[in-house]
Amino acid sequence: MLDDLVTQTIELPSGDLQILQPAESAELPDDGPVEWAPIAPYWSVLWRSGVALAREVDGMDLRGKRVGELGCGLALPSIAVARAGATVLATDADSEALELVGRNAEANGVRVETARIDWTEPEELVKRGPFELVLAADVLYESASVDALLSLLPRLSPEVLLADPGRPAADEFVERAKSTWTTELRTHSVVRIHRLRLV
């Protein structure tokens, strides 16, 4: 899948980012209904939630901060925070995704460390924490992920930015998170960005 790539230009306030993406996935723009799911691997799609989260963090002062991204896919938010001065660990369960993250980071002149991590076995990630900020874009496709995230996030960071286009599992997650986190909401078009801070 990584032998046929196209370059996407993502406009951010502080300057454009160039993202390599598998050509077959580039033909699948994420502009349909919330229930839409691609046939191509999820990591290979340029999700609108990832773009919105990258725009949200662009320009934040993150010099010297440790930031982790869960389910990073093409890792646009990770690359944006690395450009803002953060030390970044981008994680995904797919090794092809992580290989492309390295290439995309290099193409944008930043360093992003990667780790292949499955949330059902998060101990390696917990050992590599804590982080000052955790990022997650469109990771709640299924309600089964809600319990995993509710358990994992407090072990990783006191602050989380979670972007989602309005999937039902995200609503469930945010409602249940209110017992442990304070929540703030910002919207970018259809994407909702939840800022969670541990109480």
Quick description:
Helix 4 links the parallel strand 4 (87-92) and strand 5 (113-116). This protein starts with a strand and ends with a strand.
CATH top-level class:
Alpha Beta
Query: Per DSSP, what share of the residues sits in E-state strands of 2 or more residues?
Result: 25-35%
Question: Radius of gyration from the CA trace?
Answer: 15 Å
Structural class: alpha/beta
Mean model confidence by pLDDT: 91
**Parts with pLDDT < 50 across at least 5 consecutive residues:** none
State the helicity in percent bands.
Answer: 25-40%
Enumerate the strands of the largest sheet in spatial order, edge to edge or round the barrel: 5-4-3-6-7-9-8
**Major β-sheet annotation:** 7 strands, mixed
What is the domain total for the residues?
Answer: 1
Separation of the first and last Cα atoms: 43 Å
Please provide the count of β strands. 9
